[in-house]
Amino acid sequence: MHKDCPLTFDKFKELTMQNILSIEINAEMIIVEDVETGFTVRNGSNQEEILIDMQTVWVKYKETGDLNILSTFIKVQQSKVMMWNIRKKTFSEIRDNLIPLVRANTDSNKEVFPRTVAIDINNSFKAAVAYDTDSVSQILEKEMFPFLPESDEVMRVAINNLVNKGWGDEINCYEEDKFYFYTFYISESYLTHYQFFIKPIIDKKIGNCFFAFPTNNIAYAVKPKAEQDGSIVEAVSFLADQVEIKFSQAKDALSEDIIRYNNGEYELLTKN
Question: Kind and range of the H or E element at 234?
Fold first, then answer.
């Protein structure tokens, strides 16, 4: 994609198809449905399908004119397709790419978690092990990866990977009158929400705070400047407002719950 060449939706769709079909996997790939808003690609070996819906990203591109949005979209779709290949790999081949992702303990997810390598964090959240690439993370389902060792060992490896990768650098801090407001955007770093549940890391990077995960790849935190009730109430109120706005707007909404971290202890503050 070049800035000097006018880009139409049909051309973008054609480029996306070409990039998808150029990936080498251990199966034939077939375009099985080509509609106005995107297309579906099928794995000829196991008949799994991936829907490539292009309408939302195209609208964002038209609003901003930013070609990077389209390039990133194509990379994400390529990564989804490349996930088909990891099932042929051994645990030693995939272990360095495993990380823990935080997911809401909702009724819909409760049907999924038994098929994954997952542990309880609290009543609202679980951590599930995922295979991570630069563009997409895929939660592992145990029956698709019969070579995995015991769940505890897999989770230990995933957590260690996260610790070794470090806190990540996609963090912004804004100073308000009575508190600091942190925003975490999770994309191409190994930063995941689970960082907040590794006490040595959060003690070093933020300390006592309140945090929330409104979406799968956004985290917010506030750190009151003082222990007075007024500062804490103002900080938490601000955080709750930001979380509610982001949660209501997001397609990948995760939770409106707020968690307090205080001297090594966690307290879940649900919206209700």
Answer: helix 229-249
Contact 116, 105 (CB under 8 A): no
Contact 224, 179 (CB under 8 A): yes
Nearest to 164 by CA among 173, 175, 154, 156: 156
Q: How many residues comprise the chain?
A: 272
* CA neighbor of 209 nearest in space, from 192, 191, 231: 231
Backbone region of residue 264 per phi and psi (left: phi > 0; alpha: psi in -120 to 50; beta: other values):
left
Q: Name the most confidently modeled range: 63-67, 111-115, 191-195.
A: 63-67
Contact in structure between 104 and 124 (CB atoms under 8 Å): yes
Q: How far is the C-alpha of 132 from the C-alpha of 138, rounded, in Å?
A: 7
Q: Per-residue pLDDT averaged across 148-162, rounded?
A: 91
Whether residue 103 contacts residue 128, with contact meaning beta carbons closer than 8 Å, is answered with yes
Token pair 């034939």 is found at 28
Backbone angles phi, psi at 105, to 5 degrees: -85, 60
- How many CB atoms lie under 10 A from the CB of residue 2? 7
Tell me the C-alpha to C-alpha distance, in Å, between residue 43 and each of 13, 21, 28, 102, 115: 19, 11, 6, 28, 21
- pTM, two decimal places: 0.72
How far apart are alpha carbons 205 and 79 in whole angstroms?
Answer: 31
pLDDT tens column, 93-105: 889 989 998 988 8
